[in-house]
Amino acid sequence: MIDTKKSKKKGRKRRNREEDVIVRDLILALNLCHNVTPVTNDTKPDRPRKELQASSPDEVALVTFGEEMGIELVKTEPGKSMVLKYPNGVLDEFEILMNFPFSSDTKRMGMIVKHLATGKLMFYVKGADTVMVDKVKPAQRSNCKEHCEYLAMEGLRTLVITQRMIS
To answer: Is the pLDDT of residue 45 over 80?
Structure first.
């Protein structure tokens, strides 16, 4: 006889772990796929304040959200590298291999980065749902499209973010 309480708990733990990984990957994508530069404002030498600068306030808002969720953009050398800081204080460095800037023609932007600690290459891309739905895994497309349509009917702007490990 199967103990349904244990089975449900195991299923819930697995689902929660998968959701944790998805949320972590989303926040990581927000803090890696952008053209934001952190700048220290030294107007108060005893308490320097970091400001995020970008050509788009949307980009700053997304990185700020990522930081509020615990992954801080510490440093960036545009076109070269980024350093992130995790809630446990660990610093992580990423080399920027390619930057595909946003354009009104493509309605998306992308970034290929190399995680220096592991050597893994990741391609992050974000953009308008109209062009991004085709970039999402086939099994998730209808769900993504449905959610985007619902949010649009509520009068909200949508942004689809995806990633792929590459060799």
So the answer is: no
User: How far is residue 125 CA from its own chain's centroid?
Assistant: 9
Residue 96 CA: distances (Å) to CA of 42, 61, 99, 122: 28, 21, 7, 10
Angle (deg, nearest 10), helices 4-32 and 57-68: 140
Return the percentage of the chain with pLDDT > 90, whole number: 64
| Rounded Cα gap, residues 28 and 148, in angstroms | 21
**Alpha-carbon distance 36 to 107, whole Å?**
18
The stretch 21-42 carries a mean pLDDT of: 89
pLDDT tier, 3 (very low <50, low <70, confident <90, very high otherwise):
very low
Tokens of 136: 């999402």
The domain made up of 4-166 has a fold known as Calcium-transporting ATPase, cytoplasmic domain N (3.40.1110)
18 within 8 A of 10, measured Cβ to Cβ: no
